[in-house]
Amino acid sequence: MARDFKDKVIVLGVTGSVAAYKACELASRLVEAGAEVIPVLTSGGREFVGAASLEGITGQRAITDMFEPAQNPEIEHIALARRADLFLIAPASANVIAKSAHGLADDWLSTTLLATRAPVLYAPAMNTKMYQHPATQDNIALLKRRGCHFVGPGSGALACGEFGPGRLIDTPAILEAASIALRNDHSLEGKHVLLTSGANHEPIDPVRFIGNRSSGKMGYAIALEALKRGAQVTVITGPCDVAPPFGVTIIQADTAVTMLDAVTDLLPSADIFVAAAAVADYRIENPPTKKQKRDDQPLRLELTPNPDIAAHVGLTRAAHQIAVGFAAETHDFLEHAQRKLQEKQLDLIVANDVSGADSGFGTETSRAWFLTPDEEAEVLPLLAKSELAERLFTRILALPRAAAVCDG
């Protein structure tokens, strides 16, 4: 995701909310990712966070007034409106949302929002009743119809003592939404991507399980890339180290059988299915309902093969649906992947080397190959999982079956 922000000019608008202090962390993360961040504080924002803090983090002069005597022409509102790649308003108060919806321009931020044609992302933060008020909801709906992006708010205890929606969503979710807004890719607009991710935990008894080392990082990257391309995304996930990105529909399925049931229920609505989960190959048919006490004798388990979810999809899907699988291997990568590609009747399989320190489960990078039924394997270099996901969807959209999916 960091690649999305490198060399981008991001105007960070900070408005009147008790959550304004969180803009400092957000600015820091964007600068670390290589963005040029221009902080803008409204009069309300200045009540909660100082300009000096944001200037120290960004290395840029904070804009605080429409008519500053020493204003630099480089940050004059029209010039910056043209130069910016993204306007990120975090936190976004009810006031700035209302002004934006109705074209009011009485300070630097609201004036420049009228002038820019860059994507605009709002992260609302306000009292629950203010957020739920019909006027605020109408303003948000109007801005969405105009193409503006929104992320959050989160729900929970608020500084005012109420409980409900209105919290500024966490920084990782804002960064995900910013990367989506910057991409502005519509190649999967209106399409449904169904994805399995994470591991399976097959119970031995109520406290023990058989599992694997899948972290869910590859599934996260695939889900985020699908969101960046405009898709509706559903993630059926087992236990994993990372939560799926904000904006996807999440269904928890810890075992292979429950994962298959969820896939079967949702498959008819999907255009693209990606089997990225490390599905357990075996389970105990009827695990005991009480914890088994340890003794000094060897423990023998009778294991039953689990259903093959990717094969089920490949053999039962409709003619217009694309099915993609993963083959996590430690040796003979292409041989094993080719056999799985044919047996499961998939359109594409990703052979994934999980034997190396830089490409195994839980790493940030992957070493992989793309295999299709009619072409030679495409050898990929060592890639960040996010870049592998980007290349994967580019390859999916080049498949013969993709024309029917994208035109449908």
Structural topology:
Elements: E1 9-14, H1 23-32, E2 36-41, H2 51-58, H3 77-83, E3 86-92, H4 94-102, H5 108-115, E4 120-124, H6 128-132, H7 134-145, E5 149-150, E6 154-157, E7 163-167, H8 171-183, E8 192-197, E9 202-205, E10 208-210, H9 217-228, E11 232-237, E12 249-252, H10 256-266, E13 272-275, E14 282-284, E15 303-305, H11 309-316, E16 322-329, H12 333-344, E17 348-353, E18 365-366, E19 368-372, E20 375-379, E21 383-384, H13 385-396, H14 402-407
Q: What do these coordinates show?
A:
By secondary structure, the protein is α/β, with parallel strands linked by helices. It has two domains: 2-183, Rossmann fold, CATH 3.40.50; 192-287 and 302-407, CoaB-like (Rossmann fold). The protein is 33% helix and 24% strand. It contains 14 helices and 21 strands. The protein has helices spanning 23-32, 51-58, 77-83, 94-102, 108-115, 128-132, 134-145, 171-183, 217-228, 256-266, 309-316, 333-344, 385-396, 402-407, and strands at residues 9-14, 36-41, 86-92, 120-124, 149-150, 154-157, 163-167, 192-197, 202-205, 208-210, 232-237, 249-252, 272-275, 282-284, 303-305, 322-329, 348-353, 365-366, 368-372, 375-379, 383-384. It has an eight-stranded mixed beta sheet, sandwiched between helices. It has a five-stranded parallel beta sheet with strand order 2-1-3-4-5, with helices on both faces. Strand 1, helix 1 (23-32) and strand 2 form a beta-alpha-beta unit. Helix 1 runs parallel beside helix 2 (51-58), helix 4 packs across helix 7 and helix 9 (217-228) packs across helix 13 (385-396). The chain is globular and about 75 Å long. The two termini are 30 Å apart. The model has no long low-confidence stretch (mean pLDDT 91).
